[in-house]
Amino acid sequence: MSKPTALSIGIARGGLEIKQFMRQRESVVFTMLFPLILLAIFGSVFSNSIAEGVTFSQYFVAGMIASGLVNTGFQQLAIMIPMERDFGTLKRLRGTPMPASSYFIGKAILVTLSMLIQVFLLLAAGVAFFGVNLPTSADKWLLLAALLVLGSACSTILGIAFSNVPKSGRGASAVVSPVVIVLQFFSGVFFIFTDLPHWMQQVAAIFPLKWMTQGARSVFLPDSFATREVAGNWETGRTFAIIAAWLVVGLIWAVRSFKWERD
Amino acid sequence: MSTVISVSGLRKSYGSNHAVDGVDLAIEQGEIFALLGPNGAGKTTTVEILEGFRDRDAGDVKVLGFDPATKARAGQAWRDRIGIVLQSTADAGDLTVYESVSHFAKYYENSKDPREVIELVGLTEKADSLGRTLSGGQRRRLDVALGIIGNPELIFLDEPTTGFDPEARRAFWQLIRKLRDEGATILLTTHYLDEAEALADRVAVINSGKIIEISTPALLGGRATSLATVSWRDGTELRSEKSANPTQLVNQLSTQFGGEVPELNVKRASLEDIYLEMIGGTHE
């Protein structure tokens, strides 16, 4: 047999992760359908226009796509990894010749697939039921692709780093979910960001979700809306710079703190 | 024979607790070596240092010629040659036995055939069942399958039969012997004295971070030469006597009773008796 490489094992792990994920029906439903339920609720309650040619649904779908990056990466991994640590999965893997990088490649594959499904479902439901308009220019689609790649990578790394914060797998969901929900409220997912109190906007601006939602708005909202953002424009450069900075922070944090075993 | 594991002057402390306090060991190729000791004796710490899960404070350790603290690429090549069966794991419940075993096969350079390994651990009928539907004993067999799929030269078995019924334990022991017969060296930690006696070529007793004795199960603690207890019924009274020459005593009794001695019983100290005496003697 040929010598296995970190990449070939990582890809095999990705396949295995997806297989296991699909067999856990509750988590599939929670991760994939919950955002659609939120879209249905918010889309039905706030059916007004918030600006010329911009419905609340359009604004909300942009926010939910940004949230999707956080849900499928950060939230999913920061809950799943502590459970694997409790179950002894990680310790068992540590005792094999599997390179550590293969484990993370596998997780990245799982996140990528669930993120793509999530974004697709949100767009499909938005278009079908809430009159959401898709971008029409190639530039905007390219921007979306770049945002998904960088945002998902950042979210994945931060999820791996944060996986050391919950003390146990059982408590992980209780620690991680409030962080995500609070960030969603602060970052302009559920409400128009500029309607939020000033201090809340400033706190949100520290964290990447605010920049992901703003980036998603720059894709899905007409450019005329940019004047209604905090800075009066989309701040595309700053958006990518801040998400990239969090990616670096997450990488250093994850490398320093990752544990294969429960203390 | 070559030495597979050699340890000298191994030390590891957690604060003021000297978990491992100067351990020396040499385990030879092809033997089943059992490490016995009460909880907190330093057993797990010692084994986890040998498995490369923990760092040590002092001492020389070579496992298959490598320092288990070796990291990165050299560490991976070393891990390719060992198999670790940890204590109770509960992972991969959503994968079938075959999926788990064939996936782990991909980690190793010279893995065994997954079907053969599943057969070897007696899970062929469960090959397509999900991990979470297995019984405790079947689960443990899966752990072993995952530990040996890489065709290891050295296998660590940590409390392998905890929670087994007697029949399953005997079947499991057969499996361990089979692995040894195929050429693997096995380091076993166990709470069960009968398990050590049935399986191990040699046993080491560890307590308070120190090795008290290393010997074959039959000779441990001077067991072979310890006094035997002869008991019999004399009328209505049950009598017993400790003797260094039990055969002679039985002969006398036989003459005395004119043949058959009522309720005759000759008992040597069991491994458990010896062991409890050994660890009891060093309790603080």
Automatic annotation (TrEMBL), chain A:
GO molecular function: ABC-type transporter activity
ABC transmembrane type-2 domain boundaries: 26-261
PROSITE patterns to which the protein is assigned, alphabetical: ABC_TM2 (PS51012)
Membrane topology, as annotated: Multi-pass membrane protein
UniProt KW Nuclease keyword: no
Pfam families the record matches: ABC2_membrane
Bilayer-crossing regions: 28-47, 59-83, 104-129, 141-162, 174-193, 239-258
Entries under InterPro entries matching the protein: ABC2_TM, ABC2_TM_bact-type, ABC_2_transport, Nod_factor_ABC_transporter
Annotated localization: Membrane
Keywords: Membrane, Transmembrane, Transmembrane helix
GO cellular component: ATP-binding cassette (ABC) transporter complex
Protein's recorded name: Unannotated protein
From TrEMBL, chain B:
Subcellular location: Cell membrane
Keywords assigned: ATP-binding, Cell membrane, Membrane, Nucleotide-binding, Translocase, Transport
Gene3D superfamilies referenced in this protein's UniProt entry, alphabetically: P-loop containing nucleotide triphosphate hydrolases
CDD domains for this protein: ABC_DR_subfamily_A
Matches recorded under Pfam families: ABC_tran (PF00005)
Keyword Translocase assigned: yes
InterPro entries reported in the protein's UniProt record: AAA+_ATPase, ABC_transporter-like_ATP-bd, ABC_transporter-like_CS, ABC_transporter_ATP-binding, P-loop_NTPase
Molecular-function GO terms, alphabetical: ATP binding; ATP hydrolysis activity
GO cellular component: plasma membrane
Residues annotated as domain ABC transporter: 5-233
Family designation: Belongs to the ABC transporter superfamily.
Protein name (database record): Unannotated protein
Native source species: freshwater metagenome
